[in-house]
Structure formats: structure tokens, C-alpha cells
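Much of what follows relies on a compact textual record of a protein's fold. With that in mind, consider the following protein and its fold in C-alpha cell form.
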Amino acid sequence: MKHAIAIQLDEKSLNIQDAREGKKGFIFGKPLSVKLEFGNIKEPNFDNLHSVLLKIKKKNRRKFKKSFVVLTLPDRVVFYTNEFIPSSISPKEIEDSIKLNAELETPIVKDECVIHWQEIENVRGEKGKKEFLVGVTPINFIEGLINTFKKTNISLHAIETFAFSHFRSVKESVDKETNLLGVYVINNELSIYVVEAGNLRFIQNEKIETKTPFEFVEQAIIRVLSYYFAGKKNFKIDSFYLDFNESTKKALTIKLQQDLSLDIQLVDKNERFSKENASNMVLAGALDRSFTDQINDVDISLMPFGVREEYIREKNYIFLDTIANISVTLALVIIGIFISVLVFVYKYESNIDGSISLNIAGQSQKSGEIEKRAEEFNAQVSRIKNFENNAIFVDQYLKDINDAAPKNTKVAKIEIDSLKRSIVIDGNSNTRDEILAFKEALKNNKSFIEVDLPLSSIEQKNNPIFKINIKIK
């Protein structure tokens, strides 16, 4: 059964919620809201965040241990932009081109930011080009967050912003051909996003600093539509996702229909999020991402490349260490029992020395039973020792694979068969060159005698998926 935790963080509060998969869908835990003094993106108070996380984890240690965790942040912490790159250039050149263009457009100084991107469908009609949604975030802010969660021993599955979490709560209610406008307000802060062809493409975020918030929201929607409609022939918004109470939603719909002369079609959150305790759609959407398999999770994440994979490897090492500790403890217990049996046998033989001549047949039978028990205990001790050796064997080869993996190569699954002396690695990488480099590094390791990478396993040019088969000594 899968478990998940979502954390929604802003300057003055931390909201957290857990969920698990039941037979009839998600079962949401009760959300928790905690006040804190985190500060803004330029001067964050990571110490205050750390102390709050420690208190929460102390009361929910078991939930954190078995859950994937997604952190969602205000949209304004990221500078989003769209880039068009020629389809003919290589994946490595695409990466360089995206970074160069983002550095020219972003207000953040070069080498002081983390840049991530997600390929989205090119709906603008520019032939021979690929479209990417690019996010740029101050590197000190992201690294500070990750280090704070590491200090608290909380492993993050992904970091995203509110708009992506919010959109996921309605994603299954609209098809890929629908153009959607999403609107929500959190802590007196308005966010509006536009979705085309199933991809979130545009986010506008601003504070509501007026005594007439209703009019402010309506005018902000009109401004976004005017900006987004500019230069787009035959483009229209098919659906509106207005995350407000029913009375506000109804009044806003009527006003927009009057001012824009549009037939506004409203969509609502997916039925999975209509259950008890699922009232915060940002948390609900982040929980949904926590349940997504890692290899299928292609949404943009603000985590630096390799951090999530490092968390996964650490979890594997912790698991193996636990197995080894259990093995040693079990071995000591069995050895203790075995010694007790030997003492019992010695005392028993001493007591019957005087009468051995009277009952030789019976004594021989009992001695045989004792010898049989001793053999059984010896066999159990041997099995425990073999189990310990296997744990050490697995730990060593995982370390060798980890050392050989290039920075941007993501290992999704490792299957180890100690009897067949074989390892199968599944994963994906940014480029084919990195996969080939991974293969060569494994071949150069003296622990491996055969490394096979079928070319047919590299299934795509961008972020190719691979499978490597290894024979070990």
C-alpha cells in the first residue's frame, strides 16, 4: 500500500497532509496547519523551518518513514518562461541552449540559479521546433531547503509550485484538447494559470492589495486573457477552474460572461478529491504527485539533478544495514540457544552416567535425538551466516553502481540475483552519451565480468530509458 505526504510552505505557515491508497481511492488524513516565521525568498529563516519540521516528524515518525514527500511552494519563488529550440540539435545542445536563453531572460544572476525544464507540446505552429517550459530558481534558496529537510531526515520526492499542484487536482476532469484557465487565492495572493493541450504554460501571481478583492480578481483574469490572446488566432479558453466558494464562483462567472461576452464553462475538481479532508486543492494535488511512480513522473521539479536519486540510494543502504543488524542479532540469539542446549546435554549425560549400563538402548535413542537437535541448530547458524554474507554482497555492488553512475543518470530499479550472480539496472538519463559512459564505467569495475547494454533498450532520444544487464564475479 502506497503512502504519501504533501507539505505546503509559505512565509508564515506550513500546511501538511498525508494520504494512503485504499481499495476505493485515496484516503486522506486530517490536514495540519502550523505557524512559522520562514521569511521571504531573499532572507529565509531555515532554522525556524528546521525546528518546526522536527516537531512534526517526532509525532509522525512512522508516516514519514514509509511515505514519499512532495514539497510545494508559492509560484513567485520561480521565474517561469517558455523556450523554442530547433528539433535538429542534440540533447546536450538543447540543454546548453535552454540554459543560455533562460540566463538572458531571468532576473537572477548567472551561476546563482537552478534551471529546470519540461518539454511540452508545441501548439504555436512553429515548425521544426520543440517547446519547453523552463523554471529558474535561486540556487541558495533551493539548496537551503534541501539541506534543511536532510537535517530533519525527510527525503523529498519532488519540489514544485502551487500552480502545478493545483492543476493536478482537476487534470483528470479535462481532456488534452481543452484550454483551461485556473484561478485560486492563498493567503491573499492571487494565482492564475493557463493550460493548453494538457500542459501548464503560463502562471501569473500577484498580491491582492485592495479593499475590493472581487473586482481585483476579475480584472486580473481579464488582463491575463488579453495578454495570452495577443497574436493567437482562433485561440479560446474552453473551461474555467475557479477555486472559490459557490457564491463567489457564481458571481464571478456572471460578471466575466457579461464583460467578456464569453460562454464560460466551469469544471470542478476530480471526484477523487471530493472526499472528506480533501479541502485544500494544492495539498491534494501535491499528494497525487507523491503517488506517481518515479520513472513516470515527468513534471518539472525544482530539485537539482541527482538529489532525489541520492535519497533513494540512502534509503537502500539504510534497508541493507537494517537487514545486516537483524541478521547479527538473530545469529547471536541462535548461538545462545545452541550453547544452552549443549549445557543441558552435558548435565543430562552427567546424571545418567551411573545408570547407563541399565538402559543402554533407551540412552542410545536419546543421545541420537540430542545429536539431531545439535545438527539442526548448526544448520540454522550456517543459514544466518550466509544471510549476513549476502547483505554485505548486495551493499558492496550497490556502492559500485552508485559510484559509476553519471550525475544526470537516474536509476529507477535495481534487481540483484545472488544465486545467478547477476544484476539488472533500469533507469533513464538526459542523453544517450551519459548512458554509454555509465556502461563503460561499469565495464571498468573489476567486480563485474560482463556488462550488456542492448541498444534496443534506449527507447527515445530525449531522456532515454535504458536497461543494463551485468554478470558479477
Notes: The domain at 313-472 is CATH 3.30.1360.100 (Gyrase A; domain 2).
